[in-house]
Amino acid sequence: MKATSLILLSTMLSLAANANPEIPLWPNGAPGALGKGPNDTPTLTVFLPKSQTPTAAMVVCPGGGYGGLAPHEGKDYALWLNEQGIAAFVLKYRLGSHGYRHPAMLQDAARAIRTVRARAEEWNVDIKRVGIIGSSAGGHLASTLLTHFNSAENKPANSTDPIDAMSCRPDLGVVCYPVITMDGPSVHSGSRKNLLGENASPELVKELSNQLHVTKDTPPTFIWATAEDKGVLPINSIMFGEALAQAGVPFELHIYEKGAHGLGLGSRQYDPTKWHRWTRDCNAWLKEHGFATQTSAH
């Protein structure tokens, strides 16, 4: 019995040592938190590749209409990025379904980038190669930080927290079948309701229609969607690509013929044999931009 207990303890310790740690972004509570429970506590889950030299890093923003977080657009993306030699940090951001509205989500994304940079030495990350990737509403959040990294909500006043001294501007972005606009016939109404509430002002709707806020300082971006997507119309991606082109920002835009909304890597299971070809195109783009050091397996 004693030997069995020791084996069980050893197994538990081994599993704990190999687990991907989940860390709170604000150990003393997030700004504007409505409580202290899990739904009020934004976190990062850490996925690190094996590397002797500092790696690039990506903060991963899962989709879910600002009402949930899709696991296959979080952990699966992190594992895929690790295979390319990129550190990944899955963001659990606050949600409209839990009573939060803009700018809580943007604050969480900005803090995530700052945290990765502040702990770069600990996580073996290159501070000058920190990007963001998001899908669907997570793509909207990623594109919001790509276009609003200088906004007032991202600049904590009179903070003595050293993390707040770090830049929250991503070095590049990847947005997958993203929500972009908050207005017009192409809007994803569920995301808008969860992000902005029932009766958002025209000014707020315009502020979060991210195609309107691209500048020459917006980071390089890889954008993709599918023509078959009926959940978030691909015109959202085209709008963002057009705005990047007009601003002279390097970008790549793919509208693939096949694929339903929420495609992720290609399936709801982590199965490299089912990966969509966007994963190869994005891997090549990440290599061109000095992020990926390995080629995708499929």
Question: What does this entry show, briefly?
Answer:
The chain is of the alpha/beta class. Helix content is 32%, strand content 16%.
Task: Walk me through this protein's architecture.
This protein has about 300 residues and is of the alpha/beta class. It has one domain (about 65-290): 3-Layer(aba) Sandwich (Rossmann fold). It has 9 helices and 8 strands. It has an 8-stranded mixed beta sheet with strand order 1-2-4-3-5-6-7-8, with helices on both faces. Helix 8 links the parallel strand 7 and strand 8. It is globular. The N and C termini lie far apart (about 45 Å). Mean pLDDT is about 90; it is low at about 1-20.
Index terms:
single chain; 298 residues; Rossmann fold; 9 helices; globular; alpha/beta; disordered N terminus
- The total beta strand count reads 8
Instruction: Kindly provide the radius of gyration, computed on alpha-carbon positions and rounded to a whole number of angstroms.
Output: 19 Å
CATH overall fold name: Rossmann fold
**CATH class division:** Alpha Beta
Overall helicity: 25-40%
The overall pLDDT average reads: 92
Point out poorly predicted stretches: 1-18
Broad structural category: alpha/beta
Topology pattern, helix = H, strand = E? HEEEHEHHEHEHHEHEH
Distance between the termini: 47 Å
User: How would you name the CATH homologous superfamily?
Assistant: Alpha/Beta hydrolase fold, catalytic domain
**Looking at the chains present, what oligomeric state does this protein adopt?**
single chain
Shape: globular
Number of domains: 1
Number of helices: 9
Largest sheet: 8 strands, mixed
Approximately how much beta-strand content do the residues carry? 15-25%
The name of the CATH architecture is 3-Layer(aba) Sandwich
Biggest sheet: strand arrangement: 1-2-4-3-5-6-7-8
